[in-house]
Amino acid sequence: MWITSVFDVILFFIPMNSLLTALLLLICLTTSVAQNYDEAKVPAYVLPPLLKTTAGQEVKSKKMWEDVRRPEILRLFEDNIYGQMPKDYDSIRYTLKNGDRAAMNGKATLKEVAVQVYRNRKSVQINVVMFVPNHAKKPAPVFVLINNRGRENTDPTRKVKSGFWPAEMVIDSGYAVAAFHVSDLAPDNKDTFINGVLQLYPEQLEADNGMKAIGAWAWGASRVMDYFENDKDIDPKNVIVVGHSRGGKASLWAAAQDQRFAVCVTNCSGNTGAALARRQFGERITRINTTFPHWFNNNYKKFNANENQLPVDQHMLIALIAPRPLYATNASKDLWADPTGTFLALKKAEEVYALYGMRSKLPANPPAINAPVPYAPLAYHNREGEHDLTAYDWGNFIRLVRSRR
């Protein structure tokens, strides 16, 4: 009835000689409401095998995984979804723009650092906001957020405080906390996303498997990791990369590409994040590529409404994090991000963690709402509420990090 009534409205306002335009608009409207939220309508699907090479060989050891299968899978994601990850640049510089050893009433030191990366006489600047606990007896582990929300969420003055980045909570737990904003790397806009990292790598825009915005944000996380390796207050062996939604897609890709990240957190990342594409539940590839054409490489559009032809699925991306811990989350009212598909992706990735002798503590079925399983190597919870990153989520991320130390 809703679609019929919309069609009637279109016909009322658009002349008959514009009927073709009306029909095209109707198709767009139909697509926008056609997402599946019914488990009974999830199609039958077969996931690409994790532990079988493209040549058909069974992978039975971590050496074969690391030497053969992992590089294959990484390349498949590069070529078909996220794009290449350029490694070269001419130089990198770190500048402390602002510091305050009496931040948070003396509990922390504030550092505002500019990470400047140069290539071919061009540069990009990543602005890092960071707090380090003052009473740490040794270099501190650090949570670094890929911030895809407003900069006020990571306010260095702390006049504005947000559950999206509860810096005081992290400091009180004995850890450092940092953030950078995605717009420093690639503005989240289909018309302006090239105004950042891609100015350094214009060749990526010409390649069908070239990096776009999500890849640029992940690239930026690695340059911030470069900085952490040069900050005596930070333990570079214990850097936890965190992202929410599209930032959670980027945190997964960053950790898959850069094995220096000790832990990966992906919060409500959904389609092309931690959720299985082949379930066709919630957001689908067609919708994400249409709404956000600047996020993924050109080749990904070949799989619009064609998920089963993908040579990979998201359980394989999660497996690339192994043997490092990974925490994935969902929210009960965020069916768009497919909580069940996220949990199933984690369960399937257990096969690779098992190669390292690591046993997952995840139950056989998705846990109840607000019943977190915050333990390495694969952690998960489905929080009550909306699509968001909250203090509840952060509290459980901290529990995971504590459990492994």
UniProtKB/TrEMBL annotation:
<keyword id="KW-0719">Serine esterase</keyword>
<dbReference type="GO" id="GO:0052689">
    <property type="term" value="F:carboxylic ester hydrolase activity"/>
</dbReference>
<keyword id="KW-0378">Hydrolase</keyword>
<dbReference type="InterPro" id="IPR029058">
    <property type="entry name" value="AB_hydrolase_fold"/>
</dbReference>
<dbReference type="Pfam" id="PF22244">
    <property type="entry name" value="GCE_fung"/>
</dbReference>
<feature type="domain" description="4-O-methyl-glucuronoyl methylesterase-like">
    <location>
        <begin position="115"/>
        <end position="357"/>
    </location>
</feature>
<protein>
    <recommendedName>
        <fullName>4-O-methyl-glucuronoyl methylesterase-like domain-containing protein</fullName>
    </recommendedName>
</protein>
<dbReference type="InterPro" id="IPR054579">
    <property type="entry name" value="GCE-like_dom"/>
</dbReference>
<keyword id="KW-0732">Signal</keyword>
